[in-house]
Design a protein that fits this description.
Elements: E1 2-5, H1 11-23, E2 27-30, H2 42-45, E3 55-58, E4 61-64, H3 66-76, H4 87-115, H5 125-145, H6 158-172, H7 181-191, H8 194-199
Parallel strand pairs: 1-2
Antiparallel strand pairs: 1-3, 3-4
Helix pairs in contact: 1-3, 1-6, 4-5, 4-6, 6-7
């Protein structure tokens, strides 16, 4: 059975839980990370030297990085709807997954820690404003690219899973936001999926 190491309310763990549910995989989840066993523990570092949750153990295979884990699971179990085999189609999915990790996540990091977690290390008003402005800019990109179903049209993919948890974080972080009707409608469609209801809404941590 798969072992998934990481607390259930982590945004990156939720991506993997959601993916497992969509595929129909059994797994054993173990609490690691903030509030639980520390990721600096040698047992964890032996599986994930980056000291970040989640980590996945599948037989002799140990993996880190949430988007990589999601791709691995979809590919291993032949879920070509979630991650296409054809190179150009797969690249379109991975493009959005990479953008979510780099541009979108990078934009909100400071503002999220300041406004949702009330971190004492993230209370510089100028940096909060800069992060909020960058976050709004990236969400405007997403808004401009959304259609009436999923990010790549009629087929739900891994890109929608990773974008979905990020849109949830946008909606739940308290600050003055512009209206993004496409993103809000997109999120409502995501919320109807049983796998989202099981794992997508654990929080904004």
């Amino acid at each position: 059975m798969l072992r998934l190491l990481g607390r259930a309310n982590s945004i990156n763990v939720r991506k993997v839980l959601w993916t497992c549910h969509e595929i129909g995989l059994d797994y054993q989840r173990e609490d690691w990370g903030r509030g639980f066993r520390p990721v600096t523990d040698p047992d964890f570092l032996a599986l994930n030297p980056f000291a970040q949750i989640p980590a996945l153990v599948d037989g002799d295979t140990a993996l880190s990085e949430s988007n990589t884990i999601c791709r691995y699971l979809a590919a291993k179990h032949g879920r070509h709807d979630l991650l296409p085999q054809e190179a150009a189609q797969r690249a379109q999915v991975e493009k959005w997954m990479d953008w979510q990790l780099s541009e979108l996540n990078g934009s909100w990091m400071y503002a999220f820690h300041a406004l949702s977690r009330n971190s004492p290390d993230h209370q510089d008003p100028a940096r909060i404003a800069e992060s909020v402005a960058a976050w709004k800019k990236q969400m405007a990109v997403l808004e401009s690219q959304l259609g009436e179903r999923w990010i790549l049209g009629e087929t739900f993919t891994l890109a929608d899973i990773v974008l979905g948890v990020s849109v949830q974080r946008w909606l739940l972080t308290p600050f003055d936001k512009p209206a993004l009707p496409k993103a809000e409608a997109y999120f409502e469609r995501l919320r109807q999926r049983p796998a989202y209801r099981a794992h997508g809404g654990e929080g904004v941590a």
